[in-house]
Amino acid sequence: MKRLALMIMLLSAYQLKAQIDPLKYPTYTNIEDALKSKKTVYSMSFRDKGIFNIPPDLVKMDSVFFLNLMGNKLEKMDKEIFSLKELEILNVNANSIKFIPDEIGELTKLTSFSINLNSLTKINPNLAKLQFLKTVHFDANSLNVFPEALLEIPSLEEINLSSNQISFVSENLDQIKNLKYLNLSSNQINDFSDVRFPGKIKYLELQQNSIVKLPDDLFKSKNLEFLNVSNNNLKDISSKVKGLKNLVSINLANNQLTDLPKEFQQLKNLKTLILVGNPMEKATIQELKESLPQTQIYF
């Protein structure tokens, strides 16, 4: 599981790097070179330096908007980080951080916050002060509930909470009005029935939980394109699935499904249907193939 989380984390790091123009915003990898530079310093990376603490002189880099502290030995988020009032992208993945301090609320320009593979058990409510946040990655920590602070940040577009210990998700998820991508895979979610989803949701990952029933509100998600609910305990899918008009791919592998409702035929955009590992009879499989000729089905 941790290996998978590491792969996701590395992909996220490359995505963050892609946001930075290396010619316009050269990234400095040590504080000495940054201090000597005659140019304004916008981007700094201390990735895999083995450091236990932030260099104190970081406070002098008041124009920095990108800071990468991934892969070190930090046990806390040092105060120097919170002096960077222009900071937009912060990556502290793969450290040993146990909590997020109250000062996180001072980084009011932050748009992307990644703190994967740490030791968090909860998220500081002051995170809600970051009203420009678009992306948060909290995967591979030890969170046991969906962070309530996120419900107060309607600007969020992407949330990754995979590989935690979450068993409860607030029914008010629809308060995050701009949310498009949500990853809750590899948690301990069982009861999911009352959750209300944002209207803009496009990508939803719920695989490797203990979900026994999909919430009715999910089937109102007209913008949903990709849904993964593999490796759960689903015994049936509601006929309300017809509401997922733009669904392109659904992964239902390794559940307890014996059949699917005929309403699947109304999903005209469905290209991929994965049913591997379900106890379906051959006759049922044949019927599904005939009723969904436009869909690639995997049994």
From TrEMBL:
Residue stretches spanning the membrane: none
Q: Where is the signal peptide?
A: 1-18
One Pfam entry for this protein is: LRR_1
Do you know which InterPro entries this protein is assigned to?
Leu-rich_rpt (IPR001611), Leu-rich_rpt_4 (IPR025875), Leu-rich_rpt_typical-subtyp (IPR003591), LRR_dom_sf (IPR032675), LRR_domain-containing (IPR050216)
What is the superkingdom listed in this entry's lineage? Bacteria
- Swiss-Prot/TrEMBL keywords: Leucine-rich repeat, Repeat, Signal
Stored SUPFAM superfamilies: L domain-like
Recorded hits in PANTHER family, A to Z, give: CASPASE FAMILY P20 DOMAIN-CONTAINING PROTEIN (PTHR48051:SF36), PTHR48051
Write the protein's name: Leucine-rich repeat domain-containing protein
Its taxonomic path starts at: Bacteria, Pseudomonadati, Bacteroidota, Flavobacteriia, Flavobacteriales
